[in-house]
Amino acid sequence: IWALTFDAKRNLLHAATGPAARLYSMDPALGSAAGAGARLRYDGESGHLLCLALDSDGSLLVGSDGEARLLRISEDSFTVVRDFEGSEVSALDVASGRIAVAVNEFPSPPTAPPDGSKSKSQPKRPKPGKGSAWLIDGEGRALALHQDDSSQFSAVEVNPRGGLFVGTGHEGRVLQVGENGSWALLAQIDERQVTDLHLADA
After folding, report:
1. pTM of the predicted model over 0.70
2. What is the pLDDT of residues 1-39, one digit of tens each?
3. What is the mean pLDDT of residues 102-125?
4. pLDDT (0 to 100) of residue 29
5. Which end of the chain has less Cβ packing within 10 Å, N or C?
């Protein structure tokens, strides 16, 4: 289970999972009563649904790996909001009619020797991915606001004053990114990964 989000209006808990790329919905009030359980809302058959956000109309925005797609899942159907170039949609946030999206691209893993023998050299440490941060407005226009070829992005949050906030997955940085593409370093922590961001009410 990669992500959870709760719809208080409908009293439903949603779960994004892998490796079969399935989205489930459940009513916590039913608990383990007979007939209760998780209802399958979407079946992608393969891959992982990595991130999840609830939009104001009750639909669910979901980010996947493999094809780096952003999906919108309603009660009985789904649509592809955008198919990004990359390996995964790692994080997303929705607020004020805007969607913030973090997309990563990772290098291909090393190939094994053709004869199946083990290499005598020391295995190389995996290189970090390349991250890009996007903002999609209420009319569906997608803007690539920031790109980093030295670090993947692991968290994103809509800035109500414009632009977005980004958490990196390589050097533990939190960035503030403007809608004109300008950016500033807000913090750098000791840990390598910023796995989530939340903008508290003033």
Report:
1. yes
2. 999 999 999 999 999 999 999 999 999 887 665 556 789
3. 67
4. 81
5. C
